[in-house]
Amino acid sequence: MTRVGLVAKRRLDAAAGVLAELAGWLEARDVRAIFETETAALAGLPPGRPTSSRDELPRHCDLVVVLGGDGTFIGMADRIARADVDVPILGVNFGSLGFLTEIALPELYGALDAVLTGKSEIEMRTMLRARTVRDGSPFDDHIVLNDIVITKAALSRIIEMSVSVGPDPMTQVRADGLIIATPTGSTAYNLAAGGPIVHPAVDALLLTPIAPHTLTNRPIVIPASAEVRVRPVMSTNDEVYVTFDGQSGFPLDEGDVVTVTRAPRPLRIVKSAERTYFELLRSKLKWGSESLMPNP
Q1: What is the DSSP string of the chain?
Q2: How far is residue 66's CA from residue 111's CA, in Å, rounded to a whole number?
Q3: Which positions are annotated as active-site residues?
Q4: Rounded-to-integer distance, Cα 52 and Cα 55, Å
Q5: Of 34, 135, 200, 233, which sits 20 to 30 A from 109 (CA to CA)?
């Protein structure tokens, strides 16, 4: 590992000093620090030093280090997928620990040293590919880490969607929307909508209706190998949108079909050596004091 890409949350002034220190730490170990363009400006990097755009950075490094929150992490994860490269990502949180940026700032150098010496734990996370077909032709293609959400506009009435899994029709959903999530995304919008928490190691997809208007429309967990097809049943004045990891999206037209499958590559995440997934859940979801936890 000879090149590490550095990306910070936009306008995260608290990261400026850390970035400069981090670059020096890497270069003292013969590892080149490659700054994302806006991150270089945040760190006060001298003019003339080569930088890379966020879109291109995954192609120029062996590891991406993200300083910020889960939103910044997800944005880079999606860019790694679009670049079709097998680059691991390490997330450092500057506030309370995130579900993805789970490495605290004091743990940064220990985590990096473990990566450089080959001692770190790398966890594979399922990603999803969403392809939209319009008028019989491919219209859009996205890869996401957390979820694809099909939802109504703010002032629209409920929407109806025809959902199939593989060759079989599954149901007609009448709701405010539908979330198709990975296990990683189970603790994001899916959790807020009443969906289940699924351990990231489980090979599954989650389908969760948003405020369903039929009580029998419930969240369902299906094999990750399944192909999910969603076709909104629209009438005049209906406004239906599809969004990808909450970071981009577009309105759907009558007859559009969104097909969701497992992406060809998983995302490689550098895990914290300081805590397990369940410790992270207890911390984030306030599942009680550790002093009350029974001894194993």
Answers
A1: --EEEEEE-TT-GGGHHHHHHHHHHHHTTT-EEEEEHHHHHHHTPPTTS-EE-TTTGGGG-SEEEEEE-HHHHHHHHHHHHHHT----EEEEESSSPPSS--EEGGGHHHHHHHHHTT-S-EEEE--EEEEEEETTEEEEEEEESSEEEEEE-TT---EEEEEEETTEEEEEEEESEEEEE-SGGGGTHHHHTTPPP--TTS-EEEEEEES-SSTT---EEEETT--EEEEEE--TT--EEEEETTTEEEEE-TT-EEEEEE-SS-EEEEPPSS--HHHHHHHHHT---GGGSPP-
A2: 13
A3: 70
A4: 8
A5: 200
Q: Token match 């599809």: residue?
A: 242
- For the stretch 135-182, pLDDT in tens is 999 999 999 999 999 999 877 788 999 999 999 899 999 999 999 999
Which residue's structure tokens are 């306030």?
286
Full set of structural domains in the chain with CATH: 3-125+266-292 (3.40.50.10330), 128-262 (2.60.200.30)
Residue 9 has pLDDT above 90, yes or no: yes
Q: Each residue of 208-230: pLDDT tens digit?
A: 999 999 888 899 999 999 999 99
